[in-house]
Structure formats: C-alpha cells, structure tokens
Amino acid sequence: MKIHVDKTNLTQVLQKIQNVTERKTGMTILSNTLIKAEGRQDVEFLVTDLELSLWTKIETQVEVPGSLTVSARKLFDVVREIPQNMIELESLPYDKLLVRAGRSRFELSTIPASDFPSIHFYEETELVDIDAVLLWKALNKTAYAIPSDDDSFSISGVFLHPVEGGRLRFVSTDSHRLASFEMPAEVFSSIPIGGGVIIPRKGVLEMLRLLEKETMASLGIEEKCLILRTPSTFLSVQLLEGHFPEYQAIIPSSRPYAFETDWEALYYGLRRVAVLTSQTWRHVRLTVKKGSLELDAGNPELGKANDVLDIDYEGEDFSVSFNIRYVMETIQAMESSRVRFEWADDAHGGVFLGPDDEGYFSLIMPMIV
Fold first, then answer.
1. Pairing state of beta strands 197-200 and 216-222?
2. Using N-to-C axis directions, what is the helix angle for 263-274 and 324-332, rounded to 10°?
3. Cα separation values, 166 from 20, 161, 264, Å
4. Residue 342: how many CB atoms within 10 A of its CB?
5. At a CB cut-off of 8 Å and minimum separation 6, what does 343 contact?
6. DSSP code at position 242
7. Under 8 Å CB-to-CB from 255, ≥6 apart: which residues?
8. Please, are residues 320 and 279 in contact by the beta-carbon 8 Å criterion?
9. pLDDT per residue over 124-134, tens digit each?
C-alpha cells in the first residue's frame, strides 16, 4: 500500500475515530484502525471495540492499493506533529508502516488486515432520513444523566421508547437524577423500536460527536444494532439488553410548590456559591421564600457562600438540598430564558423545567444533610 494524503483531511479522520478504539484491552487489534486503499482515490478507515464500529473515508491519491492495521492513537500523534501539508503512507516488509513528509520519517508497527475483526454495517438495512439537529438535541439533553460504565447498579444508556399522545421519549437516569426529552413519534415512525431500545453511553457520546455539525442523517435498527449514517460516516452501535428501570414511579404527580426565575441569574448564582464546595461537601441548599431564593453552599475547611436571587413565588417557605453539580448540569441542558422548579416533599425529587424548552424534563433527588 502506498498513498499520498492531505494532512488536514487525515488529521480530521484520525481524530474522528479515536473515541471508538478500545485502548483498555488485551486485544491490541482493537486499538488499531484498518486502513483500506482499494481504489485510486478513496481510502477507508475502520475501527471497532466489538460493540461500537465506525467506518469513514477520505479522498487521497492511491499509488499502490493495499490494506493494513496500525495503532490509531500513534498514527494520530505522528500526523499532527508533521508540519508539511502532504503526507505519504507506505507499507513496508515485516509489518511496518512508513509515514513520510519532507525529511521526517516514522516507522510504525502494523498488524495484518486479515486479523481485524469482521465488521457488519448492515448496508442492506432500510435507513430513514431524520433531522440530525433534533436527534442531537434529544441525546444532548439526556446524556448528562447516564451513569458511568463502571456503575453496575444502573443501566448505562439512553432509553428511547414511545409514550402516550403519539410521542417518543428519550430518558436516562443514574438513580440520583433523571433527564428526559420528548418529540413527536412520527420523526422515527419507520424505525422498528418496538417497546423501546437502550443506546449505550459510549454510543450516545459518539452519535453526539458525529451529529454535531450535521443537518440530516439516516437511522435504522437491525439485529439489535442501531445504524447511523452521515454523509461520510457509518456508525454501528450494539444496543443494550435488559429492562430499563420503571422510572415513572419516582415522578410526583402533584407538585404544589413551584417558582420561576431567570436562567442566567440562577446559573451564575450557582457558579458563585460552587466555589466553596468540594468533592466531599458538594450540596447547595435552596431556601425558598416569597419573592426570593437563597443559595447556601460551603464546607468546614474552606468556608461558606450565600447568594439571594429574585423569583416569582407567593407560597409557603420551604428548603431543599441538591448536589450542586447535578443542578448546574440540568439547567445547562435547557434552551430557555427562565427556569421553573416544582417540588412536592422530601420523599420525591425536585423537577426542573424550561418554560421555553418544550419536551425537556429533569428530576433530581434531594440530599439529606
């Protein structure tokens, strides 16, 4: 294999595939990218961790067709340090890849392409054109509440399922908080989601990266895999098995205490008092009175902070404490100039809504301090 490629194009494609490769594994091949130069112009790049697979391509000048696998991370590190605009990649005997530009030469160890796992992108699957901006929005508003992969007590993914009223709901929870976003079901009417599918955390994050600068994309489901296609990329995501928690039971049907306040005032007020929180002392206490919201945070080692905001409220006084990071992440996901907070009692979570952000809903369980 011998190809000549523009540095900018190569850097972009190598950056795109970094998050899919699996570096914490004993299988070296899963940290490699398969490079296939079969024609005269296009070169394909494939990566997989066996649950997530990504295919993309760039235009190059192919002098000698061929294929090989090489460390995606090391090739990326080498390419981005090269000052020249054109780079030459050439396979050498004894499983080596020569990277050459100007008077710089690098030899990277390779593994034969035949050792790379077989990847099925279900090219025959019927894909449905969707609004990429709307899908990105739904995932972005729920991704922050997905538990980390090492949390064995929660399902680490976004649950996509139909609900009453011809709506489709994206929901995630780490048992301390819940985030959801609804949209009209007809957006995904031709995609076979049945009673619901669970997109794993890593898949959600990769979809967000791919969709961020797109306006249209195509989506489909085949054999428990979600397929996402953008103009230059195919992504295959193995859907999670199991049952998503019955989360509806924790949402209080009656929330008699409610107030509204300015989004910026609340967000920057939280930022100010967060300065004196820590990993151990991370709560913020909300004291609600007629016309005012008092924010209190701090810890014995650093001190304490207090801030008072104007709110629209005429009810009884009450107070509640939350993890301050959870509250900030919740309102950061909103697209609204105002924030609405609804509360029932200490046995239920506090509900955060964006009056201008139709379909968005978040619930945070209180902290006992």
1. unpaired
2. 150
3. 34, 11, 33
4. 19
5. 255, 256, 257, 258, 318, 320, 350, 351
6. S
7. 342, 343, 344, 351
8. no
9. 778 999 999 99
| List of residues 6+ apart from 302 with CB closer than 8 A | 276, 278
Look at strands 350-353 and 233-238 and give their pairing: unpaired
In this model, does residue 153 exceed pLDDT 80?
no
According to DSSP, the residues that pair with 59 across neighbouring strands are 42
Tracing tokens 């000052």 back to the chain, one arrives at 83
Helix axes 72-81, 7-17, angle to 10 degrees: 150
Region 221-244: mean pLDDT is 92
Q: Report d(CA 85, CA 97) in Å as an integer.
A: 19
The length of the chain in residues reads 369
pLDDT score for 249 = 87
**Burial (CB count within 10 angstroms: exposed 0-12, middle 13-18, buried 19+), residue 198:** buried
pTM for the model: 0.92
95's tokens: 């499983």
Binning the chain into helix, strand and coil, the percentages to the nearest 5 are 20, 45, 35
* pLDDT at position 160: 96
**pLDDT given at position 149:** 64
Residue 31 and residue 47: Cα distance in Å, rounded? 8
Q: Is the pLDDT of residue 155 over 90?
A: no
Q: Which two tokens stand for residue 34?
A: 């398969």
